[in-house]
Amino acid sequence: MASTHGAEVLVASNRGPVSYEAGEDGSLRARRGGGGLVSGLSAIGPETNAVWVCAALGDGDRAAVRRDGGLLPREDTGGQRVRMLGIDADVFADAYNGIANSVLWFVHHMLYQTPLEPVFDAEFRRRWEAYRAYNRAFAEALAEEAGEGAAVLVQDYHLALAPRMLRRLRPDLRIGHFSHTPWAPAEYFRLLPDDIAAELLTGILGADRAAFLTRRWADAFTECCHAVLGPGIPAGTRIGVHGLGADADFLRERSHRADVDERMAALRAEIGEGRRSIVRVDRTELSKNIVRGLLAYRQLLDGRPEWRERVVHLAFAYPSRQDLAVYRDYTAEVQRVADEINSRYGTPGWTPVVLHVRDDFARSLAAYRLADVALVNPIRDGMNLVAKEVPVVSDEGCVLVLSREAGACEEMGEDAVVVNPYDITGTADALHAALTMPAAERAERSKRLAAAGTALPPAQWFLDQLHALDDQST
């Protein structure tokens, strides 16, 4: 079943390195993405025969698949070989929104309101069949593209079943699975029906190596295997950890371009002369805990009135997963709380919360550079690269207020102000401590945070996973 192309290295992920938008005239415009996988694949060099297998996410992508037969033109992909799968739109929606984002994400981030949810009924089982079909499509495509003994790196919770499926099709391959999310503790993971929990675990255990962002998440996976499948990890599957860091060179170069300087001038005008800034940059994703961050800021203004008119909260909350009602409701609540704070405390010359909801990377970098305090308070997070990016870009050094439930806390907690993400009072106190930290201490901490946050850049993170598939001792 091996392809005549005989790819030596393969990456599989839901989202690929390029997406397409359809114009009114039917033309397709390609837009390249970034991130750790893109940086990582570039690190292996053009001489390596590599292929990236991904899914068509929208109508533009599906049109490109029909036009190109799934193999995208290299001028669109930056020279990479990319195979995009035109999975049936209904199957994709059930697998992606119905299972990956509405079940697996909620389990691993512990987001359920358990008196009412989850409900694993006949509709869930129907969607689970779609999730199986989605994973099967990836496994079959990888089997077709891979050369003998190739290395395959399967990414994330969308593709938890693919390693086992691929192993059955191509036992010769070296397969790794990497989880970018946290992994749920065993007692929470077992909210899932027993057979589904077992299928997810055995799916990942089809890989030669299952890897995670932190030791905490790796240990949680191991505990789930013991609780659901019985003692021990099946022979042949090794457990590993690869922390993902920020790309320092890219961030420093990109953050000093003209468009970022323009955004900085606009943000300074919104903040006002002589005021301090508390910055957060997130998607309006439930686990990011934006509402509690706003409530902590409100408590800071209420309990420490000396900060009124002296600080501005720059809150960049970019809408995410708006096709799901619970995310639309959450986005609306972010807006409501921000408006309530501004109505309650604002003055003609001072807007306490400056909320931006339109994604603008240059503006985010501008805020990073201006930040006196960076607030990163997720309920749970596999890593959280914002926590690592802000200290790298900050012009004067910033204080990082960081949730203990972020994977980044394992590497950066010593120099951050660490908070319990549910504790509004504690987070308000942490914001006050951050705002009053002496400049010299702030600068020294920021320097150490930047070093920790860039210790494992994306290219090295990717290469380490490849090398670990070759090294039977890791």
Please describe the structure with a list of short key phrases separated by commas or semicolons.
15 strands; 7-stranded parallel sheet; globular; 19 helices; alpha/beta; 6-stranded parallel sheet; single chain; 474 residues
What does this structure look like?
With 474 residues, the protein is of the alpha/beta class. It is built from 19 helices and 15 strands. It has a seven-stranded parallel β-sheet with strand order 5-4-1-6-7-8-9, sandwiched between helices. Strands 12-11-10-13-14-15 form a six-stranded parallel β-sheet, with helices on both faces. The chain has a two-stranded antiparallel ribbon with strand order 2-3. Helix 6 links the parallel strand 6 (146-155) and strand 7. The longest helix is centred in the N-terminal third of the chain and has 24 residues, at 122-145. The relative contact order is 0.11. The model has no long low-confidence stretch (mean pLDDT 93).
